[in-house]
Design goal:
This protein is an alpha+beta fold. It has helices at 3-15, 104-124; strands at 18-19, 24-25, 33-37, 59-76, 83-99, 134-135, 147-150, 154-156, 159-175. The protein contains 2 helices and 9 strands; from the N terminus they run αβββββαββββ. Strands 1, 2, 3, 4, 5, 6, 7, 8 and 9 form a 9-stranded mixed beta sheet that branches. Strand 8 and strand 9 form a beta hairpin.
Length: 177
C-alpha cells in the first residue's frame, strides 16, 4: 500500500466512489458532505458543497483530505528478516462549510452537527473501509487523539462560511518480505 492508496481509501470512506472525470468523491454516506477531494480545487464551485443534497438544504460541506506526515518503523519478529513495518499517517479532513441559514448561530450549530456525524461515521469502522489498519486509535508514537479545531465563521451576502479541521492518526501494517 502507498500513501496515495491510503489517502484514496480514506476519501472513499468519507466521500463514496471516486469520479475520475471530476477527480472527486461525490456520493458521501455522511449527511451534509457534498464532495470529498484529495487536493484543493483550482475553481471553487459552490454547487460542490451541496452535491447530492435536497434542494433547499441550508448547510453543505466540501472536504479536502490530506496525509501531511508519515512515519515508518519496523517490528522485528521471528528472526533476522521476519516482522512487520508499521506506517503511521497524520491525516487532516479540512471541512469547508457553506450555509444559507438566516442566522449565523444556526450555521454554527450545523457545523457541530456535521462534526458529530463525521466522528460517528469514523467510529463505525476503525479501518475506514479497509483503507488503513486503524484510525483515531492508540498509536505507538502517542498520537491517540482525534483533534478538532474550528475557524472563525464569516458572513457576507446572506452566506456563512465556516471551517473545521479534523485531525487523526492512522496506521497500516505491512509484513516484511
Amino acid at each position: 500500500m502507498s500513501v496515495a492508496t491510503a489517502l484514496d481509501g480514506i476519501c472513499r470512506y468519507f466521500g463514496g466512489p471516486y469520479d475520475p472525470d471530476t477527480r472527486t468523491y461525490r456520493a458521501s454516506p455522511v449527511a451534509g458532505v457534498g464532495v470529498v477531494r484529495r487536493a484543493f480545487p483550482k475553481r471553487d464551485d459552490h454547487a460542490d458543497y451541496f452535491r447530492g443534497m435536497e434542494l433547499g438544504t441550508r448547510t453543505g460541506c466540501q472536504i479536502v483530505a490530506t496525509i501531511y506526515r508519515q512515519q515508518e518503523f519496523r517490528i522485528a519478529l521471528g528472526g533476522e528478516h521476519g516482522g512487520w513495518k508499521q506506517r503511521n499517517f497524520d491525516v487532516e479532513l479540512a471541512c469547508f462549510i457553506r450555509s444559507r441559514t438566516s442566522h449565523a448561530e444556526d450555521a454554527q450549530d450545523d457545523v457541530y452537527d456535521l462534526q458529530d456525524a463525521l466522528l460517528e461515521w469514523m467510529r463505525l469502522d476503525r479501518t475506514l473501509g479497509g483503507a488503513v489498519f486503524q484510525a483515531g486509535e492508540h498509536m505507538t508514537n502517542g498520537s491517540n487523539v482525534i483533534g478538532i479545531s474550528y475557524g472563525q465563521p464569516e458572513t457576507k451576502a446572506e452566506l456563512t462560511k465556516s471551517f473545521m479541521s479534523i485531525t487523526f492518526s492512522a496506521c497500516e501494517l505491512i509484513p516484511n518480505a
